[in-house]
């Protein structure tokens, strides 16, 4: 596994902003679903229940973790429940991510759950990009949504794209780094057509590119100097600074319409370019005998194994324990020690979940997220190779928030 290429990401959203539709499109573009059928009703309105949809198509959209691949990069999509506030489950799912896509509706903008999710992301210092979905809807206004991200969430949010067409006629985006138009061919939008910026929006694109560069220059002296001296700025420099900005807490904003298959691919490109790999994340566990003693974990397969069970799911094949491996590696049939119970347990099978199949694998290494079969543990349990080695759980018990009104 080339860790530098791996992305462990979650998609978080206020309900109804299109998280499921976007997840489904991502599976489609990553080649895991072979046809987008128009079974969901016409955009807003009639929605087929997710379970029905899954049954109909024989796929899993909402597995705890689904592995896909985009442009040679493995991506683990981790389900982050958006409808619950401060539950341990949300905290755990955020804990295992390296980055996230915050989905917003182009009309609804920043809504109550976006605020909750934002708070949780901040707590876990989860780097993220925003995606303004439903750009085809009447009343779509990405500029207002970006403003709300700044005002309501205090986010350093700036547009990385400019919309082409408005509401019904929304047809794609201008990439403000490359200054190229990305539109789509074919009914399923699989083809990205790269062209010149339409003349009527050229001035606006120049203006928003300027605003983007200004925002980014706060993260780079080099970029700031080049801007001030009006020197030419290379795309490579902007990519690098955007990456640093995301790690520094900025929120670059993308936009599209998942339902109409517009501009989902450029979002996937942004995930690869800007969201971190497991190598970029610093993870600390605690010494189970004295939790004030912190243990730094590194995604190195040669170091002693430490992994955390973050979700337990029963399905027709048995119990699946979804686990993030923070350090070392695991092998099929190997025995590992539950740090909470001190019991030895055999990992009888290791599986990678794809939306359309499960793949049995012999080993899995640090940085990865897989499902293990044959163990009986509680969600949140840490595993290792010896007793009292390391524990992660206590880290995500949130500070108590007491509100007195
Ligand atoms: P979730 O609750 O966030 O998972 O949202 P869904 O993916 O279930 O979408 C909610 C509704 O919005 C459904 O009726 C979708 O068909 C619709 N929807 C999703 N994406 C878009 C979009 O890009 N444009 C429009 N107009 N509707 C969309």
TrEMBL record:
The keyword Protein biosynthesis applies. Its main location: cytoplasm. It is found in: Cytoplasm. Residues 4-279 form the Tr-type G domain. The keyword Ligase does not apply. Belongs to the TRAFAC class translation factor GTPase superfamily. Classic translation factor GTPase family. EF-G/EF-2 subfamily. This is Elongation factor G. It comes from Stieleria marina. The gene is fusA_2. The chain holds residues 1 to 405 of 695 of the full protein.
């Amino acid at each position: 596994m080339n860790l530098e290429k791996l992305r462990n990401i979650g998609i978080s959203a206020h309900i109804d902003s299109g998280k499921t539709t976007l997840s489904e499109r991502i599976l489609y573009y990553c080649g895991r679903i072979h046809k987008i059928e128009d079974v969901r009703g016409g955009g807003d309105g009639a929605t087929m229940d997710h379970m029905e949809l899954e049954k109909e198509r024989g796929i899993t959209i909402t597995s705890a973790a689904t592995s896909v691949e985009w442009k040679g990069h493995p991506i683990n999509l981790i389900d982050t429940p958006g409808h619950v506030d401060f539950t341990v489950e949300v905290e755990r799912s955020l804990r295992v991510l390296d980055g996230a896509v915050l989905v917003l509706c182009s009309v609804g903008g920043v809504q109550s759950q976006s605020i909750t999710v934002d708070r949780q992301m901040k707590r876990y210092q989860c780097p993220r990009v925003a995606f303004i979905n439903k750009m085809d809807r009447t009343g779509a206004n990405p500029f207002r949504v970006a403003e709300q991200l700044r005002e309501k969430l205090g986010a350093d949010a700036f547009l990385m794209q400019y919309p082409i067409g408005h509401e019904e006629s929304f047809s794609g985006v201008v990439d403000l780094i490359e200054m190229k138009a990305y539109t789509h061919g074919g009914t399923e939008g699989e083809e990205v057509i790269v062209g010149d910026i339409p003349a009527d929006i050229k001035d606006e694109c120049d203006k928003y590119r300027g605003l983007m560069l200004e925002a980014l220059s706060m993260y780079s002296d080099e970029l700031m100097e080049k801007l001030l001296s009006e020197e030419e700025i290379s795309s490579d420099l902007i990519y690098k600074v955007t990456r640093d900005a995301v790690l520094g807490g900025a929120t670059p904003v993308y936009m599209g319409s998942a339902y109409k298959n517009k501009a989902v691919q450029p979002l996937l490109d942004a995930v690869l370019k800007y969201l971190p790999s497991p190598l970029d994340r610093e993870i600390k566990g605690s010494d189970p005998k004295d939790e004030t003693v912190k243990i730094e974990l590194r995604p190195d397969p040669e170091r002693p194994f430490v992994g955390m069970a973050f979700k337990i799911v029963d399905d027709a094949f048995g119990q699946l324990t979804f686990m993030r491996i923070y350090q070392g590696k695991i092998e099929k049939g190997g025995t590992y020690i539950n740090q909470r119970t001190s019991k030895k347990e055999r990992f009888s099978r290791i599986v990678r979940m794809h939306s359309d199949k499960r793949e049995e694998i012999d080993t899995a290494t640090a940085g990865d997220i897989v499902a293990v079969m044959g163990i009986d543990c509680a969600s949140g349990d840490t595993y290792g190779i010896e007793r009292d080695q390391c524990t992660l759980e206590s880290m995500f018990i949130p500070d108590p928030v007491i509100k007195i009104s």
